[in-house]
Amino acid sequence: MGCNKDKKVDRKFKTNWKIYNLAMKNEDEWFIQNAKKIIDRMPEPWEISKRGRPPHPPKSLVQALLLKSKHQKTYRGLESFLREGKRYKRLGFNSPPSKSTLQEAMVKVPKEYLEKIEYELSNVLKKQKDI
To answer: Which tens digit of pLDDT belongs to each residue from 80-108?
Structure first.
């Protein structure tokens, strides 16, 4: 009677949020740096129009779209994420792209282009982890 064998024990581990946040920041830095190296070696993902206002760099837009996919963000969420702490500058933008610009870029970028980047990133990770 004194034993509660059926009672679930809720074990919670205390999270050190400072270390967690630092790890997440470093993960994004690793991702951005390695994706940039790969994208810089590749051709432009689409042809740039010579008409109108100068567009955002296509390769920077591709990097932003990779972050969208990695973090499973909406276009609006990605726009806010890029504005936060001026992350957009680290990706090569002079000003943050709007959600509609990001949406248009997603339509323009070829699926094979993104698959190639993903493949190359996985190879970099395998080499670093000796997998």
So the answer is: 999 998 889 999 999 999 999 999 999 99
Measured CA to CA, the distance from residue 101 to residue 56 in angstroms comes to 9
Is residue 76 within 8 A of residue 99, CB to CB? The reply is: yes
Contacts of 40 (CB under 8 A, 6+ apart): 59
What are the structure tokens assigned to 76, written together?
A: 């609006």
Query: Could you tell me where the DSSP H helices lie in the chain?
Result: 17-41, 58-71, 75-83, 87-90, 99-108, 111-129
* Residue 35: burial class (beta carbons within 10 Å; 0-12, 13-18, 19+): buried
Structure tokens at 44: 């432009």
What residues have CB less than 8 Å from 11, skipping those under 6 apart? Answer: none
Sign of the dihedral through C-alpha 97, 54, 121, 27: negative
Residue 8 tokens read as 């679930």
